[in-house]
């Protein structure tokens, strides 16, 4: 055994709702990315640095790749996912066991700008299919004609085969630096995480199209002398009618979302949290380049 330090980057990509963020949280043993049953919950790249013996694997969770015609936000999400595959050491392409590899996946995989990096097909949610259908599914994936280096069935939710996959990635890492110091598991500041947790509660509590039409911006963040953290979260919607729905009857919905977010933030950050939420209408924010840049998207967003 040598004690050369090994490291590398691994992109987690696929269509929306395949369990990519659930997988990131599972391997990191903590919640870094928000998760919901609705597609397009993840809007930006979420980084998780996993430390193992003499090895650091840096995972990049990404927004789902979908047909991004509609607005600049959607295109920014897809662009972010695609770009995350550049200069990584491995790509994990996620599909859902119940749906298998589709024509859409075929198209996406061929377009990924992954260079020479190996690509693994991850068949997730195997807990949702009968065991006897797994072998035929694997055989079929092998025949897809795509250049997968290996096909790996997992359950990100229940954890089955996840250790095997991480071990495989560990073995692929090559001599390199420790990109992130040991105590630093992500590059997201606390205020960003706070906004994401509020957004998750909005995704979980609001119906239909509404979650897609809102954003959360943490405008103010301070550490009180008592040790409590105070966050002021602005919930941005693009229609007056949406504002009313987010606030709810006599403020009931906003209160529900606020307390669910505060409860989770306190557990996550390990301190008392004061969370104030406002709702504001900004017409067509999803096409507002400047605002999207404030959310962390690149300034070279393609039209
Ligand atoms: N049964 C099952 N559900 C899963 C699994 N992984 C993720 N999910 C669920 O699938 C939904 C989408 O997960 P998410 O991680 O947000 O998907 P993403 O859009 O690809 O990041 C959520 O409701 C998850 O709880 C899995 O292995 N098994
Ligand atoms: Mg996600």
TrEMBL record:
Query: Binding of GTP: at which residues?
Result: 14-21, 61-65, 124-127
Region annotation G3: residue ranges?
Answer: 61-64
Domain (KH type-2): give its ranges: 206-283
Task: From the UniProt entry, list the residue stretches annotated as the region G4.
Answer: 124-127
Which GO biological process entries does UniProt record here?
Answer: ribosomal small subunit assembly
- What membrane topology is given? Peripheral membrane protein
| Keywords associated with the record | Cell inner membrane, Cell membrane, Cytoplasm, GTP-binding, Membrane, Nucleotide-binding, Ribosome biogenesis, RNA-binding, rRNA-binding
| GO CC annotation terms, alphabetical | cytosol; plasma membrane
Lineage, top-rank taxon, reads Bacteria
Q: Name one GO molecular function term.
A: ribosomal small subunit binding
Transmembrane stretches, by residue range? none
Annotated family: Belongs to the TRAFAC class TrmE-Era-EngA-EngB-Septin-like GTPase superfamily. Era GTPase family.
Function description: An essential GTPase that binds both GDP and GTP, with rapid nucleotide exchange. Plays a role in 16S rRNA processing and 30S ribosomal subunit biogenesis and possibly also in cell cycle regulation and energy metabolism.
Fetch the NCBIfam families from UniProt.
Answer: era, PRK00089.1, small_GTP
Q: How is the quaternary structure described? A: Monomer.
What name is this protein filed under?
GTPase Era
Species per Swiss-Prot/TrEMBL record: Magnetococcus marinus (strain ATCC BAA-1437 / JCM 17883 / MC-1)
- Highest classification ranks of the organism: Bacteria, Pseudomonadati, Pseudomonadota, Magnetococcia, Magnetococcales
Q: Which gene encodes it?
A: era
């Amino acid at each position: 055994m040598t004690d050369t330090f090994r490291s590398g980057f691994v992109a987690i990509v696929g269509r929306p709702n395949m369990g990519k963020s659930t997988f990131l949280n599972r391997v990191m043993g903590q919640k870094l990315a928000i998760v919901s049953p609705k597609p397009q919950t993840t809007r930006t790249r979420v980084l998780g640095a996993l430390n193992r013996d003499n090895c650091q694997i840096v995972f990049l969770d990404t927004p789902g790749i979908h047909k991004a015609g509609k607005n600049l936000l959607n295109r920014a999400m897809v662009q972010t996912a695609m770009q995350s595959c550049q200069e990584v050491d491995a790509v994990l392409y996620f599909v859902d066991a119940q749906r298998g590899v589709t024509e859409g996946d075929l198209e996406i995989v061929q377009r990924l700008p992954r260079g020479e990096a190996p690509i693994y097909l991850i068949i997730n949610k195997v807990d949702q299919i009968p065991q006897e259908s797994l072998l035929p599914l694997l055989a079929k994936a092998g025949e897809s004609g795509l250049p997968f280096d290996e096909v790996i069935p997992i359950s990100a939710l229940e954890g089955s085969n996840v250790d095997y996959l991480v071990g495989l990635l560990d073995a692929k890492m090559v001599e390199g630096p420790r990109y992130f110091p040991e105590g630093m598991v992500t590059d997201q500041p606390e205020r960003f995480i706070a906004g994401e947790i509020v957004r998750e509660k909005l995704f979980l509590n609001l119906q239909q199209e509404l979650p897609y039409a809102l954003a959360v911006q943490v405008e103010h963040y301070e550490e009180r002398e008592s040790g409590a953290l105070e966050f002021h979260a602005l919930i941005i919607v693009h229609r007056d009618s949406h504002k009313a729905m987010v606030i709810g009857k006599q403020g009931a919905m906003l209160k529900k979302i606020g307390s669910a977010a505060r409860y989770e933030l306190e557990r996550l950050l390990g301190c008392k949290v004061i969370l104030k939420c406002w709702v504001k209408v900004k017409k067509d924010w999803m096409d507002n380049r400047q605002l999207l840049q404030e959310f962390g998207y690149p300034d070279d967003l393609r039209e």
